[in-house]
Amino acid sequence: MQITQVRNATLLIDYAGTRFLIDPMLAAKGTLPAFAGTANSHLHNPLVELPLPLAEILDVDAVIVTHDHLDHWDPVAQQQIPKHLPLFVQHQKDADTIRTCGFKDVRLLSEQVEFAGIRLQQTEGQHGNDQVMAVLAERLGEVCGVVFSHPQEKTLYLAGDTVWNEMVAQSLRQHEPDVIILNCGDAQVPGLGSIIMGKEDVRAVYQAAPQATLIASHMEAVNHAVLSRKELRDYLAEHGMADRVRVPEDGDTLSL
What GO molecular functions are on record for this protein (predicted)? Predict the structure, then answer.
């Protein structure tokens, strides 16, 4: 497989001969508002430009939207993605929302689908710790991850916008993935805490999945993600974890 870190949680995944676009945030730098009530809310999103031409990003076989927050599914994506492409979502609510944008082939991951011979299995997550969810559950909503499997490929687990918790641990035990993509920019709500993984969460996954290569995503592109790639790399080196954790720059492609 090949995994291209586009920007934020947006990825291109080439898997078993099929190319997927993940969580497309395609707007130009600074054209979207900050997330109100979060860290660095004086900054406009995205913080950086796309590293690849839009035509290259859109040259895919299918799209996966793990949830419909603005930094995973923005107006440019809604306008520019070809409406005929198969588009996978977590539940009927997101499907209904996305169909209103004109998309014709919206499918539910929750139905344990197969696409081009690839099995796509939805996993659970939680968009923040229990303290955060007690206050912001309605705003943060439901999220999901996806496990990709195929006889000729390593098993890939895209964890999505979740913190480390028993749901993630259960997915690791059940699927024993060889490659794990973590959204680990440590997005913060001041006074409450993290709403995606930070460096300690990465360490927890590293310890729970000793067979896996980890890939750090969702970094340095939106206002509330406070963990930098340099800080994460320094942490990995300090704790002897750099052997199995990759921290790609925007535009980098990893072959696994």
Answer: hydrolase activity
Going from the N-terminus, what domains does the chain have, and what CATH number goes with each? Answer: 2-255 (3.60.15.10)
Tell me the pairing of strands 213-217 and 179-183. Answer: parallel
Phi, psi (deg, nearest 5) at residue 108: -95, 125
pTM for the whole structure:
0.97
Q: Could you read off the pLDDT of 104-157 as tens digits, one per residue?
A: 999 999 887 899 999 999 999 999 988 899 999 999 999 999 999 999 999 999
User: Quick one: CA torsion of 30, 195, 243, 233, rounded to 10 degrees?
Assistant: 50
- Separation between Cα atoms, residue 168 and residue 152, nearest integer Å: 25
Q: Do residues 145 and 179 make contact, with C-beta atoms less than 8 angstroms apart?
A: no
Distances (CA, A) of 161 to 129, 196, 205: 12, 5, 14
Contacts 24+ apart (CB under 8 A), 112-116: 113/88, 115/18, 115/62, 115/86, 115/88, 116/16, 116/17, 116/18, 116/61, 116/62
